[in-house]
């Protein structure tokens, strides 16, 4: 089991070197962001629009790239084949829309696999896509900036949690020195790094961050041999909490009134859809929804009551997600045991949105207004 990654001292980061954009891009120019994770391959193609963006095309498929990685340390032939098929579709979309500006990234499965360099070469050869494996700090940073529009102006302490397939990133941010109306914008300004900025504005301070190498797929694989559904759930939750021991920015100081957790992942959005009783998933109802610990707890208890068979039949969970919803719920429950809150904001957004915001902010094509 790999140890969680974190810096020597929080906030001690090197500033990434970025070359200046040669000339301002055409405002009608399209941007793309592709996120190849342990479980899924997702892409967005979007156009800047005010201080946000308008999605022109998207793609999402469960490719299970990390299937078997836990036991072999390698990406399997089958999972690489599935992934390359999905990436070919992405390449067709990029060509069709004539996208020039893009970032196509891979995360935990490719960081960990012994044969990832070989896989990246194969992807380039067979799908015509050049993937870039990003480090855990950048993954955490992109998840944080994607959630900027959901940050409340009342928030003084913010915890952003991104539950992935292979890892979970947690970032704790202090906004107490930032004027209330500037808080969402201060989160967006983290796109250039977690370090102390030279910004003339009061900055959001990253108190601590951690990348735990346990996501919905890797945590499930650790406890696959436990037969009993509820026993497996309890073990997964306590095991995840043990891995959080390294991350305790405010161990002795319970968060103040102005504490907000933003959760970004398929787990959190699925729990929200179940809570709302949606028959069909609807992003507009889920993204930005606030939930209390008690409401989340009630949904998770309902999942346990359903059992594996019932969860498979539940339209909100679906075939694809049912195998992973309990490991995700175990992570969510562990987090809420450590930091109970009545203000968990659900984010149907993540790495792809973060990649788009970062590219657009760097090129100066987003209007600088409130979200």
TrEMBL record:
InterPro entries tied to this protein: ATPase_NBD, GppA/Ppx_hydrolase, Ppx_GppA_N
GO molecular function, one term: pyrophosphatase activity
Domain Ppx/GppA phosphatase N-terminal: 45-361
One Pfam family from the record: Ppx-GppA
Region of interest called Disordered, as start-end residue ranges on this chain: 1-26
SUPFAM superfamilies for the chain: Actin-like ATPase domain
Origin: domain of life: Bacteria
Protein name per Swiss-Prot or TrEMBL: Ppx/GppA phosphatase
Biological source species: Shimia abyssi
């Amino acid at each position: 089991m790999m140890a969680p990654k974190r810096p020597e001292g929080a906030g001690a980061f090197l500033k990434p070197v970025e070359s200046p954009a040669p000339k301002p891009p055409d405002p009608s120019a399209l941007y793309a962001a592709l996120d190849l994770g342990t479980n899924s391959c997702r892409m967005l193609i979007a156009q800047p629009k005010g201080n946000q963006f308008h999605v022109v095309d998207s793609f999402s498929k469960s490719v299970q790239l990390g299937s078997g990685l836990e036991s072999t340390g390698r990406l399997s032939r089958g999972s690489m084949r599935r992934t390359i098929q999905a990436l070919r579709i992405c390449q067709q979309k990029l060509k069709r829309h004539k996208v020039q500006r893009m970032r196509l990234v891979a995360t935990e499965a490719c960081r960990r696999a012994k044969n990832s360099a070989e896989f990246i070469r194969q992807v380039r050869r067979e799908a015509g896509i050049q993937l870039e494996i990003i480090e855990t700090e950048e993954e955490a940073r992109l998840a944080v900036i994607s959630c900027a529009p959901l940050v409340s102006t009342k928030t003084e302490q913010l915890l952003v949690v991104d539950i992935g397939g292979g890892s979970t990133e947690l970032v704790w941010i202090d906004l107490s020195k930032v004027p209330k109306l500037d808080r969402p914008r201060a989160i967006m300004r983290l796109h250039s790094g977690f370090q102390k900025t030279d910004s003339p504005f009061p900055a959001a301070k990253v108190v601590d961050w951690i990348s735990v190498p346990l996501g919905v797929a890797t945590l499930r694989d650790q406890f696959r041999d436990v037969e009993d559904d509820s026993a497996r759930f309890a073990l997964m939750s306590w095991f995840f909490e043990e891995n959080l021991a390294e991350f305790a920015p405010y161990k002795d100081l319970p968060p103040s009134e102005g504490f907000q957790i933003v959760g970004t992942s398929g787990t959190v959005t699925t729990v929200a859809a179940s809570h709302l009783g949606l028959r069909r998933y609807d992003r507009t109802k889920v993204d930005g929804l606030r939930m209390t610990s008690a409401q989340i707890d009630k949904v998770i208890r309902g999942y346990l009551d359903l059992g594996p068979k019932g969860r498979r039949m539940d339209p909100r969970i679906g075939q694809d997600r049912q195998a992973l919803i309990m490991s995700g719920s175990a992570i969510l429950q562990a987090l809420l045991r450590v930091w109970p809150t009545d203000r968990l904001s659900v984010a149907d957004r993540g790495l792809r949105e973060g990649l788009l915001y970062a590219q657009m902010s760097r090129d100066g094509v987003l209007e600088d207004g409130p979200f």
